[in-house]
């Protein structure tokens, strides 16, 4: 590549054009592709080969850690460090520990879900080259986009642009770095 | 709309000639415009009562909780009544956003942001009461287990400690859920902001969200998981609140029906409060195309159904008082219905049991004035329910020597009015600065329900509809 650019972006007027374009892009074998839409479209990520199931894993791990942490905290405090005789109940009166164990599990899992989602999405990210792409502010309103990154092994400046122009796009533009 | 399958949508959930652009413009640009005139009245009303709250809390901190009407034997008065009332109101938000999401009820989209915001502020109001009831709120952190030089730890066998965990978890998770739901809308506001200041503020809050397919994919997974976590959470919170009562041995409190009966009551009062606010706001902001009669009708039906569960709870309390054969339970019920606070019980039955039966008739469900009135009546009724539970059991327990009366003071009333002011004012600030309906979810809903059809041109894609 002679000039350094981030990639090429194609703009579509509705979700149907975007979906068929995404299928074509995938058929052509492009890997470093992303699509942009003002609402989640089911199947779009799968069509583009995005298949990341780490969020549920993080949440599962966080839930287990939260539950274990909550229970062990109560166990250590009530049995080891500060046993209290409450109406003659055993120190390890575990049914009484269930509510707090549960709340700790939910709290930890919720943080896992939010931080996991943000982290895997690379957010917060104050700036991104795409924000300078023409019309890209309408990706959060009523326009649909597909961007092929220049890092894609199949990316060829002219060929890729010609290909994007065959996709019923409203506009094809260059995204500078 | 005629082409839509009747099983999914049998009437319009979005009315009018819409495109994605008009939806964004109509809802997303509300914060960018100056508010309608009634907004100023609402905000001023809330701000005035907020002043009452500041004054009351100031006096309380200076003088101590002796200025309240609580004393032996009624040690739990307005503070706990209002705590339970507010936290119940919060429950509709989580129900609408989480449970209806899991049940794939698409009509939630028009009201979930509004209801979630109500949850946040209602839980804040609720939290104030036990915090101030400790008498020394500046050492409230003693409730949290932390290593300290006094070498003491909380007693984890007490439902009051469970409350601390349940309410703080509920507030935190509700805030996370609300904020995650806001991120794509904040990105919309960033992209449409005219001034530099707005761009920077919304840009920071949106955290660089760029609507990418990969982002949406993880986002939807996380959102669904949050909903799955919030669902048992919301049930656990009011169940734990009810255990504050049920774990004690007080006649009228010591019953197993309390957790489900409290949860149903919470949803009942929550929907009532959503309608109380939604009916005027919908008109002031001209949201009739997005919060349609269908939404209003369904909210009224949910209210009717949960109201019947609550009524069953009252019946079961009466039945068990008789069937248990326990002298104390029988006396408690007799005192509750015919004793010195008997009027509050019959008012409660009127407000929660009798008047809401009007909702059986579609004519009343579709009449804004009547529905608004019923929702107010239910708010009052649910407050009376907590009054009846807290006060009639405590003031008249086992021994005549420990019977007494409870009279709330002006400061009790001031604190209650003050939290209503705080809640109202915060809700009006929310209406002013954030989109009251989730814009991206409305676009998504439009994508699914609009006349040119979803899925007909990309048929093999799973649509998410059942």
Sum this structure up briefly.
The complex is a heterodimer of chains A (177) and B (466). Chain A has 177 residues and is α+β, with helices and mostly antiparallel strands. In chain A, 44% of the residues lie in helices and 14% in strands.
Report on the structure:
- The complex is a heterodimer of chains A (177) and B (466).
- Chain A is α+β, with helices and mostly antiparallel strands and 177 residues long.
- Chain A has helices at residues 15-27, 44-47, 54-81, 98-120, 157-165, and strands at residues 5-12, 33-36, 144-149, 171-176.
- In chain A, strands 2-3-1-4 form a 4-stranded antiparallel sheet, covered by helices on one side.
- In chain A, α3 runs antiparallel to α4.
- The longest helix of chain A has 28 residues, at 54-81.
- The two termini of chain A are 13 Å apart.
- Chain B has 15 helices and no strands.
- Chain B has 466 residues and is an all-alpha fold.
- The relative contact order of chain B is 0.18.
- The radius of gyration of chain B is 23 Å and the shape is globular.
- At the A-B interface, α1, β2, α2, α3 and α4 of A face α1, α5, α7 and α15 of B.
